[in-house]
Structures are given as structure tokens and as C-alpha cells.
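[Amino acid chain]
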Amino acid sequence: MGTFAAIGIAGSGMTVYRKWLDAISDNLANMNTATATSEDAFQARYVVAAANDNQGGDSGGVHVAGTVLGSAEGRMVYEPTNALADEDGYVRYPDIDASSQMTQLIMAQRGYQANAAVVDRARDMYSTALTIGRG
């Protein structure tokens, strides 16, 4: 493991958590987006993270392996006054649970903060080591 590996590993974690936060933000922003019943509902995005595969066996951080989309079926809601309502008065909304998204938001924030703290502490440690080396 290299001298600055802790910063690289924590930085990769911060990138994954940032992308997770972006996906959650999109999901929350679109959870009340109505569509006609003939169209697909907004599909929630879920980030898939995977460990970096280092040949030496040391941990090399993580990366976003991809995203998975939620159901396009959504949920049908009776809103006869909505301009998008069909002849029976129904519109389609995404099947996104606000409480689940808020829970994921808190987890992603805490993970991002933890990785940022690792970067700060590693930077302080490297700075102190350089100071000791001078004296």
C-alpha cells in the first residue's frame, strides 16, 4: 500500500457517496411527477458500488459499478382534475417511498462525512510526518 493510499481510498468512497446522493436527490425531486397512464412513470435510480480489484490483494477503494432503475409501472392514483388523467380519472406516479429515500440520504451523508474525515486525518498525519522529518 502506497504512502497516500488512505487518501485515494477515502476519495473513491467520497465519489461513490456523492453519486448516491445525486441519485437520491433525483428520486426525491421526481417522486411527485405525474404522467399519463399510457406512459411510464419516473424510474428511481439506485447506485451499485463495487470494490476496486487490485491485483496485489490490497484494498483499492470502490467505484460505481452502475445504476439500477426502479419500476416504470409506478402507482395509479385517482386524480380526475389532473390534466394528465385518463378517461377513468387516473394518473401514474413513481413508486418512490420518501421515508426510504430519506433514510438512504442520511446513510449516504454520514458515509461521505466519514470518508472526508479520513482524508482530513490522513492529510494531518502526512503533514506531521513531514514536520518530524525536518527536525
About this structure: The radius of gyration is 22 Å. Helices lie at 5-29, 98-134.
